[in-house]
Write a structure and sequence with these properties.
The protein is mostly helical. The protein is globular.
């Protein structure tokens, strides 16, 4: 990995919203609409941050019908395993990241689909 690529990774993860997205994606693949609801982001804002993470080689995406799913890129998983471990280790030290993870766990436990999450998020996360 070249120095410029490493710098791009740290620049991408240097933004709080992108760090929150990365932290959730460490749990596995998520649809854009799930990230929007879990992190209370607009579609445009979520897409902008996801594109930045993809440009840095951190995430990859796949499209299924009208939904776009993001996950941690395989190449990054290998090269960035220490970064991922560091973020996981420090998630518990950030109130915002802990809240995100709790919302994620509540969502997964609910069994709701993406569409249902959008409709139920106000009830689910109270």
């Amino acid at each position: 990995m070249k120095v410029g690529e490493i710098a791009d990774i740290y620049k991408a993860l240097g933004d709080g919203t992108r760090l929150r997205i990365f932290s959730l994606l460490l749990n596995g693949e998520l649809c854009v609409c799930e990230l929007e609801s879990l992190l209370e982001l607009s579609q445009a804002n979520a897409s902008r941050h996801l594109n930045r993470l993809s440009s840095a080689g951190i995430t990859s995406k796949r499209k299924r019908s009208q939904w776009v799913y993001y996950s941690i890129d395989e190449k990054f998983s290998e090269a960035g395993s220490e970064i991922a471990a560091h973020v996981k280790k420090h998630t518990g030290k950030s109130d915002e990241l802990k809240k995100d993870q709790a919302r994620f766990a509540k969502y997964r436990k609910s069994g709701l689909s993406c569409d249902e999450l959008k409709l139920q998020k106000n009830k689910l996360f109270k």
